From TrEMBL:
This is HNH nuclease. GO terms for molecular function: endonuclease activity; nucleic acid binding; zinc ion binding. It comes from the Bacteria. Residues 17-77 form the HNH nuclease domain. Gene3D superfamilies: 1.10.30.50. Coiled coil: none annotated.
């Protein structure tokens, strides 16, 4: 079996720089729209996390600032590699959204 490489940690310095830039640029969760407390540490569910618009698993660039935004850890876990609408439905308690029905396109970001 071949092991998949985690693109986010293959260049740790570059990812840390990007994380610092995203934390400095944004104050609100891109999924739920609520403020993010940047003093909370992982694994707190409301701690700050960097999320990719186009997930790495779907071809997104983990080092591109234009592909990254700030989210709560909890919101990012709900989103996983799906869309924001999928995560918002789960956060609202509506589970009728089927993950397999979510269209996802990459546009060379």
């Amino acid at each position: 079996m071949s092991k998949r490489r985690n693109e986010r940690v293959s260049n740790g310095w570059r990812r840390r720089q990007l994380r610092a830039r995203v934390l400095a640029a944004y104050n609100v969760c891109a999924i739920c729209g609520k403020p993010v407390d940047k003093t909370l540490k992982t694994p707190h569910p409301m701690s700050a996390e960097v999320d990719e618009l186009v997930p790495v698993s779907r071809g997104g660039d983990p080092y591109s600032f234009t592909n990254c935004r700030l989210t709560h850890r909890r919101c990012n876990r709900f989103k996983s590699d799906k869309t924001d609408e999928h995560a918002r439905a789960l956060l609202a308690g509506r589970q009728e959204v089927k993950a397999s029905s979510m269209p996802f396109k990459t546009f060379g970001i």
